[in-house]
Amino acid sequence: MAKQKFERTKPHVNIGTIGHIDHGKTTLTAAITKFLAMQGGADYTDYSSIDKAPEERERGITINTAHVEYQTFDRVGHNYKTGEDNAQIQGRHYAHVDCPGHAD
User: Fold this and answer.
1) Which of 15, 25, 79, 82 has the fewest CB atoms within 10 Å, i.e. is most exposed?
2) pLDDT tens digits, residue range 41-73?
3) Exposed / middle / buried, residue 5 (Cβ in 10 Å: 0-12, 13-18, 19+)
4) CATH topology assigned to domain 12-98
């Protein structure tokens, strides 16, 4: 499947998941894409697609950083910063870097 090109009309946020080995960084990244895919904001990227190098799959670890993109949409909801209900909340574009948990 061709990579979807995101329009750069939204505020851009860079996110990186870092932490110790086996603390769920790649699992969290996959879960975010699954949740947003249900809302139409991303293509679901499962765990095995994020850790796609043969050695990563064989060893069950992340060796290389992986880049995943997703977005949220403009919506009406609760603004936790101001406490306002029915607030207009602007969507964002996210560039997510999933980092390995060790140096090998």
Assistant:
1) 82
2) 888 888 778 766 777 667 767 677 888 998 888
3) exposed
4) Rossmann fold (3.40.50)
